[in-house]
Amino acid sequence: MAGAAGALVSIVLVHGGFVDGSGWEPVYTMLKNDGYAVSVVQNPTSSLADDVAATKRVVAGETNPVILVGHSYGGVVITEAGNDPKVRGLVYIAAFAPDRGESVASLIKNPAPGAPVPPILPPQDGYLLLDKTKFAASFAADLPKERADFMANSQLPWGVSALEAAVTEAAWRTKPSWYLVATEDKMIPPEAQRAMSRRAGAMVTEAKGSHAIYVSQPEAVVAAIKNAAKGVGAAAE
């Protein structure tokens, strides 16, 4: 069981672009089996404001103080939504950790030489998708082919306005944060993850995994979340 740490906090899982909340199932199940209260946000990924609102609705429904966990673009969402007074800590999983005035678009504007380029197709009706034929290699290289194919063919279109929306206040500036770097990530380069985590003053761990590390390596993700729960719990004592 989770013991004191699990009793003190609720875990709210926030997905990123191109996917929905169902990918969190392995992490959700492991945390629930260890006695944690866990909720999963279903972001519309239509705009940052809509996604922050969706996340804050889930936060409002929790009886305990909350740890927000964000994957990829979900990191932008928790950076903004994390300013809610009920939120006590932030966990970034291979995620963007923007500062005030930054967006995904600004963070990816000038990639390092040789960095992989995500296979994002031209926008259609204001929404983005990844090239299905390149999805596995870029997003989910360490998943079984059948699982990667399903994710490629069940993509949730990501709004261009969500990509371009800037954070108004970065919650990591006033609240403790943790960061799990996916060392084999082909969507957000590991060096970019390390740079953002350092800037945020996060407690950092690393694990070998693709951008879909929350699906492929749930044990590493759960360990990072448990570290955050212990840290937040200790601070509350």
From TrEMBL:
Span of domain AB hydrolase-1: 11-224
UniProt cross-references to Pfam families, sorted A to Z: Abhydrolase_6
InterPro entries: AB_hydrolase_1, AB_hydrolase_fold, Sec-Metab_Biosynth_Hydrolase
Gene3D superfamilies hit by this protein: alpha/beta hydrolase
An example Gene Ontology molecular-function term: hydrolase activity
Transmembrane segments: none
Keywords annotated in UniProt: Hydrolase
PANTHER family in the cross-refs: AB HYDROLASE-1 DOMAIN-CONTAINING PROTEIN-RELATED, ESTERASE_LIPASE_THIOESTERASE DOMAIN-CONTAINING PROTEIN
Protein name: Alpha/beta hydrolase
Native source organism of the sequence: Microvirga tunisiensis
